[in-house]
Structure formats: C-alpha cells, structure tokens
Design goal:
Radius of gyration of chain A: 25 Å
Structural class of chain A: alpha/beta
Shape of chain A: globular
Shape of chain B: elongated
Number of helices of chain A: 21
Oligomer: heterodimer
Structural class of chain B: mainly alpha
Number of helices of chain B: 3
Helix content of chain A: 55-70%
Order of helices and strands of chain A: HHHHHHHHHHHHHEEHHHHHHHEHEEEE
Order of helices and strands of chain B: HHH
Largest sheet of chain A: 5 strands, mixed
Number of strands of chain A: 7
Distance between the termini of chain A: 82 Å
C-alpha cells in the first residue's frame, strides 16, 4: 500500500516536472519569434538610469561610468525623458540593465531578446507558483494540472509572456504574493510574514495596485477581531506593515528623496493616456470609456473554455458566499463568510477580483490597450475556473472521464488557436468574435508588428535601395530599425507621418491618438494604394500601402 | 458587531454599485456629450461641414434668393450709412 502511494507520488512529480520542462523548452525555443514593442527602449534607458543612480549612491566607480555611457547611448527623438518619467519600477529594468552589462551584450537585438527571455523566465516561475497555489488550495493533482494548463494557454498572456515587461511582471509578482499569502493563512510564521511582506512590497513597487495586498491583510485582521478569532495577531500585523513599507522604500529609489510625494505621484503613473481609444468604432478619451470596456475586452479576448469554467465556478462560489453571509452570527465563531482556511483563500481571491473589476470599471480610471493593465485578473479568473473543475471532480465522480475528455479536446483546440496566432497571441480574440467587432478595436497597440513588417518589406524589395517608409498611424516605427540586420538597416529609411508623400510605402498598425474620422493627419494620400492587409484569424494587424507610379 | 460590520460593507457596496450604474452613468453620459461638443474632433467636423457648405454654395448659380439678397443689401447699406455718420 505504502509502495503504491510512493509510486503514485513519484509518477505525479515526474509528470509535473516533465510538464514544466516542456513548457520551458518551448518557451526557450520561441522567445525570439516575438516582435518588439514601443516602450522597450524607454525601459532599457530606465534600467541604466537607476543603475547609475544606485551605483552613484554606493560609490561604485566602474559601474557609474559604464551605466552612464550606456544611458547616454540610448537616444530617440520621441523617447520620453527618463528624468521626467522616473517613477517606473526598477524591479525588472534594473536587473535587466545589470545582466546586459554582465553578459557583455553588444547588439540591440541581443539586449532586447535577453530582456524577453527574462520576462519569460519570471512568468515561468510565476506559473510554478500558480500551480503551487492551486495545489495548496485544491490538493487534487489533476485539477491543478488542468488549472495550470488554462493559465499557461491563455493566449494573450502566453504571447505577452515573451515581451511584456510591465503587465506580465506585475502578474507574476502578484502570483508570488498570493502564494505566500496562502502560506500565511495556513501558518502565521515569521518567515511567511517576511516573504509575504517582501513580495507584496515588490508587487506594489511595480504597480500601485499591489497596495491592495496589505489592505486585505488589515481587513482580515479586523474581521478576526470582530469574530473574536485570533488568526492574525497585532504583532504580526505591525511586523507585516513595517516590513512592507521598509521593503517598498528600499526597492523604489524614487521614494528615497521624498517618500510621501513620491508615493502619491506613483498613484497616477501609467494611468494616463492623452490620446483616444478606439472602442467599437468610436473614439473615447481613456478616462471616459463605457463601464463595460474592461469586461467586454475580457470576454472577447479570453477563450470560451476559460469563460465557461470561470462563469460556473464564480457562480457556485458566489452562491456559497451569499449563503454564508445570511448565516453570519455574532455568537458562533464559525458562522462567518468563510468556515475553513480553504474558504478564506477563496474569499481572498473573490474580494481581489470584485475590488479590481469595480475599481477599474466604475471609477473612470484611464484604461487603454485592451485589458492589459488588468491582466493580473487572469489569476482570479483561472482560480475560479479551477474551483469549478474541483467541484465537478468532487460532485460528479462518475462523469469525470467525460469531463477529462472534453477538457483535453478543448485544450487541443486552444493549442491550435495559439499556433494560429503565433507570434501574435497577444492580439488574440476568441473564435466567436466576428471580424466587424475585432476590426473596430485597438489591436496592435504596442506595435509588435513593426519589426516583422520591416523585415518582410526589405526581403520583398531586395534590389531596391533605399526603401522609404512612412508611418500612417501613431507609432514610432523608427525605433525598430536598429533591431534589423545590417544589410536591411542600411536600406530602410523611416519617415514620419507628416512626410508621407515622399515615401514608397506607408505602414499603419491602425492605432491613432486622435479620432481618425475627423482628423486628416493619418489619411493616406491618393497616390497610394493598399498593398496588403496583414491578417490573422480575420483580425487586421497592420496595413501596407504602396505608391502607384 | 460582526454582523453590523458586514452589513455596513454590504450596504455601502450595493449603494456604490447602484449609484454608479444609475446616477454615475448618467453623469458620465452628460460629461461625454459635453466633452464631445467642445472636443477638437467636433470643431474639425464643424469646419468640414462649413467647407462643404461653402463648396456647395460656390457651385450653385444663385445661392441667396432675390428677396433675401435685396434685404441683406439694404441692411448692409444701412450699416455702412450708420457707420459713416459722424454724430
């Protein structure tokens, strides 16, 4: 009996290790396929700016010199000034800048590919932690593997995990925080408080939304006191808050000179976009979008399998919560919103989801670029999807095999859809969405297609020199030129939007900072005819126009 | 005390959602309408409309009908006369 148990445990561990090894292997083979996005240059500069600042602070002469040299090298006439926009997190940019020096990388493509690999690596570790979260809560190996598959194969996140150094890093750190939060719920030890505080602080330093983690801890403390329970002690809370603010202060150099004003200004960071957002054919200011903007984007760009599982899982949990709410009693400790530690974890995830959906949808917060600012909500979406799978396994034991078969078929379909979109999984729409909807939304908002376009155009026009390309959208295509091979780089000449008449080709990723229907600045001159609509799954990623001679 | 705490949070939450979905959404709609009226896009649209009207007018043989032109002419002459008066 004991041998059988041991054998089963070894098999499970081997399978999990193989699963992660395959995921890592695939990731390490395809991370160079993805394009480069418009903010990468800025974030590289941000890394060297803070590396220089910190090496100056510690008086490391050699590092001061090299980081200054590297920082000065990063030029671009539309690149925002780091001195003005210096409130971005250093959690990713600083180590990336350091690795660039340590690995002695020379070419721009090497710099950015290393950064992409680093993003993937963090997401990969995040996936392991997410699996551990599921194991911690559901304790059923197959259920958790299914949850993990849903998490990894969410196309927009899968695609972004190879380049997005903001939203994916934030999501991963949120996963780390939740992982230690669950451990803290299990056991309120010194180490668990330390790790939870540390990751909550690191998460907050990436995005201010991370502040909700200590807020929920305070909330649980208050509820504990009202319920006359003693799960969270006053000392633990004080210790947590002290560590949280201390680590937040250490990892945010912009707080070093003035904590309060730095902290307050970081509240508004990244939540501003002065341009217009194309949403269902209309152009909106980013703070005046309809309330359903976020939910709409989640629905159209999340696979149907995820939505169905999440919908049922969320409904079941909510039903249970309502039941618990109406049975809360002042006298009986266990008549509360949660009865066990597992239910407390469910409640934590539920309150995170509800809070952020309400905050982002109803408070007129600047939203743009689909729901990428809220990609971390996928943690909670997958959690409730897994919750339903867990309930199904528990309640319908006889039908588990049918469920597994359906799940595996839908996984194969999901893999097919991921391959179909490759390397543009970041621009994924589920198969029910008609092209009339897809093409009335901002699609390639980070300009991932620019690099691929430049490569294609230079290969299609091998004998032409120079190839003059103008940009017919809000996109700094010239930032992509340095990433091309030398023989292509010398051929390509990128002109601005105001110089379209002199170009041979016009490229547009269909992103505009103004309402294109009334502003003429992005209109294509009459002497140009459309050469190509680059489409995936009937979604237009970019358009190319050619001058008719 | 626990029940009071939960109920307060629950009522506040329901109130907030109801407020946002009713009054809040109405205010948002009005704000959007006002913003649209004064937006650069609307000014561009008005300019476009004006251009189109002028173009249409230029293409017509007679843009102002005879009675109107006599009336406007008399009115302009009257203004000119008044402006030229010294006292």
């Amino acid at each position: 009996m004991q041998n059988k148990f041991l054998y089963s445990k070894i098999t499970k561990n081997l399978f999990t290790i193989s699963f992660f090894s395959i995921f890592f292997f695939i990731g390490s083979q395809i991370y160079t396929d993805y394009g480069f996005y418009i903010d990468e240059k800025f974030h590289r500069a941000n890394g060297f700016y803070w590396l220089n600042y910190i090496s100056t602070f510690f008086g490391h002469e050699k590092l001061i010199e090299i980081s200054k040299l590297k920082f000065d090298e990063i030029q671009g006439f539309t690149l925002p000034s780091i001195q003005e926009w210096n409130l971005y997190s250093i959690i990713f940019d600083l180590p990336a800048a350091y690795f660039e020096l340590a690995l002695d990388l020379k070419t721009p493509r090497e710099f950015y590919e290393m950064r992409h690999f680093l993003v993937f690596l963090i997401f990969f570790i995040g996936s392991i932690c997410f699996y551990k979260i599921l194991i911690n809560r559901f304790k059923n190996y197959i259920v958790c593997i299914f949850g993990l598959i849903l998490f990894i194969l969410t196309p927009r996140l899968f695609g972004d995990s190879f380049w997005n150094n903001k939203d994916i890093i934030f999501l991963s750190f949120y996963v780390f925080s939740i992982f230690f939060y669950f451990k803290l719920i299990d056991k309120s030890s010194f180490l668990n408080i330390l790790f939870f505080s540390m990751f909550a602080a690191l998460t907050t330093s990436i995005r201010i939304a991370g502040i909700f983690l200590p807020v929920t801890y305070i909330f649980f403390f208050l509820v504990d006191k009202l319920s006359k329970r003693n799960d969270i002690k006053v000392n633990s809370l004080i210790f947590h808050l002290f560590l949280y603010f201390l680590i937040l202060f250490i990892c945010s150099p912009f707080l070093w000179s003035n904590f309060i004003s730095g902290f307050l200004s970081s509240l508004n960071l990244e939540m501003t976009w002065s341009g217009k957002v194309l949403f269902l054919g209309n152009y909106y200011p980013s703070d005046k979008l309809p309330y359903y903007y976020l939910l709409f984007w989640i629905v159209v760009s999340t696979p149907i399998a995820h939505l169905v599982l999440f919908g049922i899982g969320f409904f079941y949990y909510f039903k249970r919560l309502i039941f618990r709410y109406f049975n809360v009693s002042n006298n009986v400790i266990y008549n509360d919103l949660w009865r066990s530690k597992s239910e407390k974890k469910d409640f934590l995830i539920w309150i995170n989801l509800i809070f952020f959906v309400c905050l982002l949808s109803l408070m007129n917060i600047n939203l743009y670029n689909s729901w990428r600012l809220a990609y971390f909500l996928n943690i909670f979406i997958i959690y409730f999807s897994t919750y339903f799978i867990y309930l199904f396994f528990l309640k319908f034991k006889k039908k588990v095999k049918i469920f597994i078969s359906i799940f595996l078929i839908s996984t194969v379909f999901l893999i097919y859809r991921n391959i179909l979109y490759h390397p543009y999984q970041s621009l994924y729409f589920n198969f029910l969405i008609p092209s009339s909807v897809k093409n009335n939304l901002d699609v390639d908002y980070t300009g991932l297609s620019g690099y691929h376009f430049l490569n294609n155009i230079s290969e299609m026009n091998k004998n032409e020199y120079p190839i003059n390309i103008a940009v017919g959208s809000w996109y700094p295509l010239w930032r992509m030129v340095e990433l091309l091979d030398e023989n292509k780089k010398i051929k390509i000449k990128v002109l601005g939007n105001d110089n379209k008449e002199s170009a041979d080709f016009i490229y547009s990723n269909r992103i505009y900072d103004v309402d294109k229907r009334f502003y003429k600045k992005y209109d294509i001159p009459k002497e140009f005819k459309k050469l190509e609509d680059f489409k995936i799954d009937n979604t237009i990623i970019y358009e190319v126009y050619k001058k008719v001679k | 005390m626990k029940i009071f705490f939960y109920k307060t949070i629950f009522v506040a939450f329901v109130f907030f959602i109801t407020f946002k979905l009713t009054v809040g959404s109405l205010v948002n709609e009005l704000e959007n309408k006002f913003h649209n009226i004064i937006s650069k896009e609307n000014i561009e649209r008005l300019k476009d409309d004006l251009r189109k009207q002028i173009k249409t007018a230029n293409e017509k043989d007679r843009f102002i009908n005879k009675e109107d032109s006599e009336l406007i002419n008399a009115f302009i002459n009257k203004i000119k006369k008044d402006l030229n008066k010294k006292n």
